[in-house]
């Protein structure tokens, strides 16, 4: 008759890891979680006096054991690369504990710094990228290839697509991306787990011969749909709605001929869940300056809910100073624009849009240099903050808690609601013109013109264990 399972009276267990003895408590091992290897070992009967032998690196095991004891990584962890720690954590089934300990703190643009630059091994110049909203991972398109990096910024694989180059990318599932190219027609879906093409959608209309070789300009997604703006050689354009479960064309809206600035293909698309609308914008710069539009569509009906064209609308004091770029704060349901001449930042409440909804933010901090607009201005809203790239410089506008705001009704200028600060240092701004900003997890990713790789920015009090790649 087998003896019942029992443990040392002291609730202790001995392990032999790579020839080095460890003694710990059962509760420490079980803190790794019921699915971990260490939890399984804690249920071993104590009838065998010999320590459990594990043929792994004892030094890294010591780090992980310390992590289970205190929920923090010890200073000895600095001797190992992130890759080594992640591999061992995966083996023992405690990867979630390591991820929690190594993840950066909440992103604060005021207190952010450059911690690494992710560079693909081949063709290091990124043509597009998309960040993981929850975990701070990133997928980078370079040429016709896409390289993926996990939450720890460790390279997990590279796939080669059939496209010559990828100029737009959106992660629609954890392992599936929607891709577009300026050189080839269609929206293409790739599964990273198998490295294969799992679908494609083309914009066609047998009744209209102008609709052919339609390429993708921008991509966005909702929980159930993928939205892609298509454009044809003769400037016809439209936004297509693709069913996310079947990857099949569902409908289209916003069809127009882009012979004028107010009818160009949307260069940015954003899904706004609070209102169930798609926000699209387009901007172009010609001999007479900037012009463009912002438009809100209801994808179910295809109707335009609200729109503005610049120049051509707005207060007289702002006429002739149209936007150079547009950003949407999804969390706060706010719309932001950067003026092309003055460089001023303006916001509008997407829940109460009207003919002229703009309030222009003003920061009178004398220590900050005067901002400028122009071609090299990009904007991105993330974590209730507004990040603006002006040439090579990066700044953040953060909302001031419990502030008293003063709005000058005649000119629509607001003071005190947001505070502006520079994220970067002078040497950072000299690395090249910022062309795209995107947030993911608690990280900010920045791409610069003619610069290899994607910059990774985190709050400056992040763990010193984040290594430069």
Give the C-alpha Rg.
Answer: 26 Å
CATH architecture of the domain at 12-102: 2-Layer Sandwich
How many helices does DSSP assign?
6
Distance between the termini: 58 Å
Nearest-integer average pLDDT: 88
Total number of beta strands: 33
The major beta sheet can be summarized as: 6 strands, mixed
CATH domain fold name of the domain at 12-102: Potassium Channel Kv1.1, Chain A
The strands making up the biggest β-sheet line up spatially as 21-22-23-24-29-28
Q: Provide the CATH superfamily of the domain at 12-102.
A: Potassium Channel Kv1.1, Chain A
Q: How much helix, percentage-wise, in residues?
A: 10-25%
CATH structural class of the domain at 12-102: Alpha Beta
| Envelope shape | globular
Structural category is mainly beta
- Tell me the fraction of residues in β-strands, as a range: 35-45%
Q: Regions with pLDDT < 50 over 5+ consecutive residues?
A: 1-9, 462-469
Topology:
Layout: E1 12-17, E2 20-25, H1 26-30, H2 37-42, E3 52-54, H3 58-70, H4 82-92, H5 95-102, E4 112-118, E5 128-131, E6 138-142, E7 145-149, E8 155-160, E9 168-171, E10 176-180, E11 187-191, E12 196-201, E13 215-221, E14 225-231, E15 236-243, E16 248-257, E17 268-272, E18 277-286, E19 289-297, E20 304-310, E21 323-329, E22 334-339, E23 345-349, E24 359-362, E25 377-382, E26 385-390, E27 393-399, E28 406-408, E29 413-415, E30 418-422, H6 426-429, E31 434-440, E32 443-448, E33 454-459
Parallel strand pairs: 1-3, 24-29
Antiparallel strand pairs: 1-2, 4-33, 5-6, 6-7, 7-8, 9-10, 10-11, 11-12, 13-14, 14-15, 15-16, 17-18, 18-19, 19-20, 21-22, 22-23, 23-24, 25-26, 26-27, 27-30, 28-29, 31-32, 32-33
Helix pairs in contact: 4-5
């Amino acid at each position: 008759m087998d003896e019942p399972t029992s443990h040392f009276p002291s609730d202790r267990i001995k392990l032999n890891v790579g020839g080095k003895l460890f003694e710990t408590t059962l509760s420490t091992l079980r803190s790794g979680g019921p699915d971990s290897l260490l939890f399984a070992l804690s249920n071993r009967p104590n009838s065998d006096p010999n320590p459990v032998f594990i043929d792994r690196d004892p030094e890294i095991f010591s780090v992980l054991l310390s992590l289970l004891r205190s929920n923090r990584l010890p200073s000895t962890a600095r001797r190992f690369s992130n890759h080594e720690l992640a591999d061992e954590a995966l083996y023992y089934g405690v990867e979630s504990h390591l991820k929690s300990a190594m993840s950066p703190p909440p992103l604060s643009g005021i207190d952010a710094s450059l911690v690494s630059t992710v560079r693909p091994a081949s063709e290091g110049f990124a043509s597009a990228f998309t960040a993981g909203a929850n975990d701070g991972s990133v997928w980078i398109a370079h040429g016709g290839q896409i390289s993926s990096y996990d939450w720890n910024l460790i390279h997990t694989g590279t796939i080669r697509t059939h496209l010559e180059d990828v100029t737009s990318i959106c992660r629609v599932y954890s392992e599936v991306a929607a891709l577009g190219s300026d050189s080839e027609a269609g929206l293409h879906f790739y599964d990273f787990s198998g490295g294969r093409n799992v679908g494609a959608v083309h914009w066609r209309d047998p009744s209209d011969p102008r609709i052919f070789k339609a390429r993708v300009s921008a991509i966005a997604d909702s929980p159930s749909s993928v939205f892609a703006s298509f454009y044809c050689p003769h400037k016809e354009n439209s936004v297509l709605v693709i069913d996310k479960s079947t990857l099949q064309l569902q409908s289209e809206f916003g069809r127009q001929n882009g012979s004028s600035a107010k009818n160009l293909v949307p260069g940015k698309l954003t899904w706004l869940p609070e209102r169930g609308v798609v926000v699209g914008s387009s901007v172009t710069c010609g001999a007479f300056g900037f012009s463009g539009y912002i438009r809100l569509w209801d994808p179910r009906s295809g109707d335009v809910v609200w729109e503005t064209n610049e120049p051509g609308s707005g207060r007289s004091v702002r006429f002739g100073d149209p936007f150079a770029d547009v950003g949407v704060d999804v969390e706060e349901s706010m719309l932001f624009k950067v003026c092309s001449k003055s460089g001023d930042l303006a916001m509008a409440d997407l829940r109460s849009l009207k003919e002229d909804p703009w309030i222009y933010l003003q920061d009178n901090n004398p220590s900050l240099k005067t901002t400028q607009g122009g071609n090299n201005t990009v904007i991105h809203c993330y974590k209730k903050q507004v990040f603006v790239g002006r040439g090579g410089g990066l700044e953040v506008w953060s909302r001031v808690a419990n502030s008293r705001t003063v709005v000058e009704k005649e000119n629509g200028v607001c003071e005190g609601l947001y505070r502006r600060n520079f994220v970067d240092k002078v040497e950072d701004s000299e690395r090249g013109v910022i062309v795209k900003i995107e947030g993911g997890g608690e990280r900010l990713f920045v791409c610069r013109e003619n610069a290899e790789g994607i910059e990774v920015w985190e709050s400056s009090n992040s763990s010193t264990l984040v290594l430069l790649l």
